[in-house]
Backbone:
């Protein structure tokens, strides 16, 4: 069952947003150019780029890791994490959190200097009300990670009529079944993308390609055990074929040897053809 193999994780990152729409200047520009209201807005940078860029970069890296190692679940930001990968995931996120805290502390320590720089660079566009007080700025930065179990229909602890309880169970069962199919499909899609790229580029003997054509497929083959939260044997079978037929492909040789290139393209296409069933609509 899915709730025995996975858990739900929600990542929330927040920071001080260093851009604002200046309504006063926007009105002035609209008037000067005779433009209709709502046709343009004048945005201004509240802080120099170097103030917030390290945090933006770290947040991007954190989200990329989070999305790469989890699968879509609900509409509230929850994502599905393979429980066997929990310790590795938690350690990686703890490292991201430590870096985020350090960068946020540094930002807060230099905040008054950043504001002073902005006062000079913005000149007449500077508005003190755009800037929170220094004592409040650190609270703008959050790194929140929440874990919760995947629901199971038998876990209800409420007293209702038996018929209503059965309806609840069926509703949850349907959601779990849909989520299980979605998790399987997403894992297959992530694997199929580098496979399809390999087929496309290698099938054309004159097409230029980078080494990433091969390394992207290797990375997904390595990552698949994490994403295969349902322990789907068909997904694992596809992975095993990739490990056997494509994992050791040499990008340099593929460029130089047309025979090897064509053979590798056929192998990739053969594996891709076996994956059609992953994307077929569920039977009604």
Residues:
């Amino acid at each position: 069952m899915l709730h025995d193999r996975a858990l739900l994780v929600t990542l929330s990152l927040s920071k001080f947003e260093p851009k604002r729409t200046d309504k006063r200047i926007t009105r002035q520009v609209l008037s000067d150019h005779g433009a209709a209201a709502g046709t343009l807005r004048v945005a201004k940078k509240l802080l120099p780029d170097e103030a917030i860029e390290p945090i933006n970069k770290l947040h991007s890296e954190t989200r990329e890791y989070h999305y790469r190692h989890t699968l879509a679940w609900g509409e509230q930001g929850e994502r599905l994490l393979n429980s066997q990968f929990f310790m590795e995931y938690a350690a990686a996120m703890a490292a991201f959190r430590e870096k985020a805290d350090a960068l946020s502390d540094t930002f807060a320590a230099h905040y008054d200097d950043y504001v002073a720089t902005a006062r000079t660079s913005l000149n007449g566009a500077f508005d003190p009300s755009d800037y929170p007080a220094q004592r409040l700025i650190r609270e703008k930065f959050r790194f929140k990670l929440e874990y919760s179990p995947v629901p199971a229909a038998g876990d209800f602890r409420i007293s209702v009529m038996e018929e209503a309880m059965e309806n609840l169970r069926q509703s949850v069962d349907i959601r779990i079944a849909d989520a299980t199919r979605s998790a399987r499909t997403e894992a297959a899609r992530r694997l199929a993308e580098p496979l399809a790229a390999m087929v496309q580029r290698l099938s054309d003997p004159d097409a230029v390609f980078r080494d990433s054509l091969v390394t992207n497929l290797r990375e997904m083959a390595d990552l698949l055990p994490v994403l295969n939260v349902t322990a789907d044997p068909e997904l694992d079978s596809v992975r095993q074929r990739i490990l056997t037929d494509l994992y050791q492909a040499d990008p340099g040789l593929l460029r130089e040897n047309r025979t090897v290139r064509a053979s590798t393209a056929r192998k990739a296409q053969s594996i891709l053809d076996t994956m059609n069933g992953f994307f077929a609509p569920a039977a009604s």
Q: What stands out?
A: The chain has ten helices and six strands. Residues 162-203 form the longest helix (42 residues). The CA atoms of residues 8 and 80 lie 5 Å apart. Strands lie at 6-14, 19-21, 43-45, 71-72, 79-82, 142-149.
